[in-house]
Amino acid sequence: MEIPRLHPDTIEAVRQAVNIVDVVAEHVVLRKRGQEYVGCCPFHEEKTPSFTVSPLKGFYYCFGCGAGGNAIKFLMELQKRSFAEVVLDLAQRHQIPVRTLDSEQKQALQARLSLQEQLYEILAIATSFYEHALRQPIGQAAQDYLQRQRHLREETIQQFRLGYAPAGWQVLYTYLVEQKGYPPQLVEQAGLIIPRRTGDGYYDRFRDRLMIPIMDAQGRVVGFGGRTLSNEEPKYLNSPETPIFNKGQLLFGLDKARQAIARQDQAIVVEGYFDVMALHQAGFSQAVASLGTALSQAQIKLLLRYTESKQIILNFDADPAGERAADRAIGEAADLAYRGDLQLRILTLPAGKDAADFFSAGEAQREHYQALLDQAPLWLDWQIQTIVQQYDLKQSDQFQQASQALSQLLGKLPNATLRSHYIHHCAELLGGHDSRFVLRLEESLRQQVRGQRWQGRSQKWQRPADYNLRQAAEEQLLRLYLHCGDYRPLIRQALQARDIEFSLSHHRWLWRQILAIEEAYCAGLPAPDDPYTTEWPLHSPTETGTQLTDLDLVTHLFDRLDEAEEAALITPLLHLDETTAVSLDRPELVIQAAAAALERIAVEKRCRYILRTWQETVALILSESLASEALRQYLDRLLTDNEPAIEDIPGVAPERLQVLAQLRRDYYQHRQYLQQLDQQRCPPLAAIRSYT
Q1: What was the pLDDT predicted at 195?
Q2: Which helix H or strand E contains 567, and what residues bound it?
Q3: What is the predicted pLDDT for the residue at 640?
Q4: In the list 205, 303, 454, 569, which could disulfide-bond 506, CB 3.0-4.6 Å?
Q5: Phi and psi for 68 in degrees, rounded to 5?
Q6: Residue 3 DSSP SS3
Q7: CA angle, corner 20, sides to 18 and 26, nearest 5?
Q8: Contact indicator for 327, 379 with CB cutoff of 8 Å
Q9: pLDDT of residue 540
């Protein structure tokens, strides 16, 4: 609905009521410095804070990019919303009456605002009702459960406003509708009552349950989680989606954890409500939980607003379900981690405990938990370690299974440098202390990973334009290798780190000749028949003391040109004229740009393969089931939403939808990596100047 023009008095009242520090602090980690606050600017990338907020002036300014303004402009620029939308939202938040200049639309606007405000009001009253019931004799079982089984102190129970829903079918209905006079349709919209199938009334959604209020970041109750006290299924029952409750956009405990996350510069994400309460009670107030669903990318980005180091630690249950939840969360967070926007770590508690069980032993566990926090491994190291621990590496069949599982994991990494690092790491884990065995394992893993990523090498997915780009990039690397001996180690390292091979036939022939010449000249050091797994020795003297970087490859190659079928294509690389000599200026940038271009071709091929696989999977789904409206809407959400959840579509095999979800994640991870490669191919002017 279009927002009508707001009255100037409403706009001015909002400006007077809003505290700019509170508004900015929801999106930027601020540190007090004198009378002002400083932080990293949300409008451009920076590592040293240059963004200042003045509470006295009600103004923000960035000395890095020049962004500045008041609280309204800050939200307009950050959230890409209109002036009227921001003012309206702030007016609701600060309970400022809204006046408009367009009387025709006033009624519709007021109805929309009134609905949200009434739902907040009803949920607040319900929370107080449940809190009161907990203190009554009917709530004694719930109190005993909290204190004796969950070991929660009274101050923790009050802090989280825990309550009890009585066992009757219409206890809350009677209170809210008959005593307080709220319309039953409104109470239903709040998610508190359910209409009877017979159409002759309502009954309470929550009955004989321990009630846990779910609050938004501003501390307003927007829904409930109810835990059964009588073994009724489900064990936990959450409020349904309402105009103010969207569980995929909320985190339990965030309203109480925001300041602690900023202070500790890290967030802990656990699975359950009681895990959050146990951690807060033990002093780890930076803990939050997702609401019965896999941690979504929207929830991750919400947390990243409050931590400068972008550190999130997942502390899920150490059981198969917890591991699956961690894997799903990693899938959502991986692309952010690849870009450096997230430092994701995994904490696993001993003996398969969750956080609530861990702290049931008492306060002595606090130091132990802090030590585990400090030692929590990065997500990829955790996945690798989890795989290795699943197999008995002394058994040959299980050793092979572990190797295959690791190669499948590493094959998903879009970043070639990261793949190269972890291939070496995995080889060391599998090979132990046998250095020769580790080298063989590393090459074997590399070949398996290449098999996982064969689409990047297949000619099937190549475009005509790829040939010209590949030819130019390979020529640059070979020409530099031939004529600038000091940079040969750097070229070797780039080829190995990015898993690059020369593809054009005459370039492959030339590279093989180079390797053969170096092998003969340096008595087999390094092993040039396998340049991708051999460390390049910067100083490899022969018997006469000549270093490999000083080797005159061009002269030796002229003696071998007669063997080449495509000598005419190779000869220009052996000569330098004015044009080609200039192209070798700034060799480091030439190597970086050429290697990035070759890797980009492979990544683009894989993207085309993923798109084709997507089309084939959708066609397979349609051949197996009817093209229902639910399926169409789900496919639309996969293409348009930032973090769509996998749904149950009638008649569609769940594994098909899982394949689509994985293809979507893979595609967008590779597209984001392509942006990094483009920056390496075309570095900014400052980077170019640094090499002069």
Answers
A1: 94
A2: helix 567-574
A3: 66
A4: 569
A5: -165, 165
A6: coil
A7: 105
A8: no
A9: 39
